Sequence to fold (184 residues):
Amino acid sequence: MKKYIAPSIRMTIAMLMLCCVIYFGLVTLIGKLAPGNGHGETLSANGRIVGYALIGQKFTADKYFWGRPSAVDYNAAGSGGSNKAGSNPDYVKMVGERIDAFLAHNPGVSRAQLPAEMVTASGSGLDPDISPASAYVQVARIARVRKQSPASIQSLIDQQTIKNAIGPDKVNVLKLNIALDKLK
Fold:
């Protein structure tokens, strides 16, 4: 029995060092090499930090692009979805209210043109991106409010669209709105 105790203790110490010290140190080092030094990529406008690139924000003003709705009100500490099925009456009512609100602010858009992602929350509730189609459907409203040509707003969307080789193209809403504020 004594011959098994000493190797077991050594193996436990070795695994603790490997899993708790070396692995943690390696992950921390990789994080420090990432954008934002492991604290997340912050976005700035007018010399001040306005948000993080990977966490969605709520935009409700007509002069800005709107992102996806959030089941957790964009609270990064409580990430999550609504967990309600499409057959849930409360969920159907909530989505219906979102559709009505979106169409009221975008009078030239029909229900058929409205991308589903603009009225349904993402699984995390923190999605910072929308599809280019979701951005294009908001062009008329933003151009009218900002007194810009729709072509200049569409060009801005094209510039901000992230092309993906594997998945769908996307547009970061915060980056797009920062660029929109810089548009003259």
